Amino acid sequence: MQGREDLERRIRDLEAEVARLRAGGGYRTVRHRSAAEFGGLPLLAIATGPDPAKGERRGHARGIVAIGDVATGVLAIGGVARGLVALGGVAVGVVTFGGTSLGALVAVGGLAIGTVAVGGGAVGWTALGGGAVGTYACGGGAFGEHVVSATRRDPEAIRHFEENGLGAVCGPGPVRARRAS
Predict the structure, then answer these.
(1) Confidence class for position 102, pLDDT limits 50, 70, 90
(2) Is the pTM of this model over 0.90?
């Protein structure tokens, strides 16, 4: 039979374990930071899950390559990603890929906003998407100054898309063969 002190110690250990699991919500936590650095940033940083010791509900990775719930880096991959190249649920940067994508140069995503935007909904100087809004817009529902859509085929827009390698997507369309009389 166990002694009273042994039982009290086991109860304290179990209570501490329950508190730790509650604080972390039972999610697995990963933290990694490479020893190699460049400009004070680690070459690789990974941070996922909560860190109750630091009071973090989500992992925030900061590094040249950052992977995490929230990621900030040259290459950022995460739920919320911020970087020169960002991939994530919400991606913000220069070149971005994400559910919601905001890119200074290129944005690709469900909702894409950027100089060149490609997505279900696209807004940009050049926009391609189901719904596209831009100076040059191509899509099922396209709005802008120069448009290629189901109802409008602006020659200036066709020229722009062909010059930029998008003629197969937003070109003049199929040539219909003439029926012989």
Answers:
(1) very high
(2) no
